[in-house]
Design goal:
By secondary structure, the protein is an alpha+beta fold. The strands form two sheets. The protein has a five-stranded mixed β-sheet, with helices on both faces. It has a four-stranded antiparallel β-sheet with strand order 8-7-6-9. Helix 1 packs parallel to helix 8 and helix 5 packs antiparallel against helix 6. The longest helix has 25 residues. A hairpin with a 4-residue loop joins strand 7 and strand 8. The chain is globular. It is about 40% helix and about 20% strand. The protein has two domains: about 220 residues, no CATH class; about 80 residues, no CATH class.
Length: about 300
Amino acid sequence: MENNNSKDNFTNELMKEIIEGIKIPKVQVERAVTPILSLFIESVLNKYFESDKSYAGLYKLVTQEFPLKKIDNNQSTNIDYLLVNTSKQLVVLFEIKTDVSSFDSKQLKRYLEYKEIISNNSLKILKDNLSSIRDASSKSSKYDYIISKFESAIIDPNVIKDVLIIYLVPHALKKHINDEYSSVDYVLEYSDLPKIINHTYSNHWIVVRENLIKLDVFFHRKLQVTQKGDSIVIVVQNIKNYLKNIKNICNPISLRLGITGDGSKPNYQVKFDDGTIKTFRFSGKPHSVEVFNSTNLSKEYLWSKIKEKA
């Protein structure tokens, strides 16, 4: 008979294999993590909010990959988890990111639009939209299943008007979202997840959480690598060479290094005092992308403080 240790070992090996995927192009770690986290997400939120008078209570997962109807047609995009807390009459739009480059501001805008719509009307709008999506879909039976899950978890959607938007992201992305998007109610990094939860498989949760925290450490380590050492020396020297080769000299104000590679040869972005922003490859050659995605960049380094390094 299999003992608890062997079961924990299996969970650990499974999670290790999933998390290793962040090092492999085209592997979508989020898709592998989502169904595993869905087993624990209710207990995680119960524990996380247990001391919060505004949001404490029992959270119920409606479904993972909940379809959100687009505003202008019957197509949909999915939110990772829809949860409800009927004791507080609120619904949770819960989104996870396993990579620092996967944050989508348009996606957040859609969630904020729905937060306003639900606040001004009620959660019934989501149920009505499900029916519209189903009627326009060739896979209506799958939407019937989601509707049944919705009706089972939420007896009276008319009384629910409060919405929480929660993001679970790697450490390196948390600060960016908090700084740039104050409209997100809660931004959690993986180490913020409670270690102990009330769950039938709480011992497995400890193992799952320990592996998820590697996402915080992995991207934090990459960020640190790009912030020091020979790389920044070479980058600064490249900028100096660039300035020598242009006719209309403008002075750099700051630079930001790419954080999505291994840190040894980062691309970078420079802001100049004439208001322009230019992107470069590590070699010093101009990059074809006009402006990099800010989630793929380090913090801003002032030119005045780093130019003496090279």
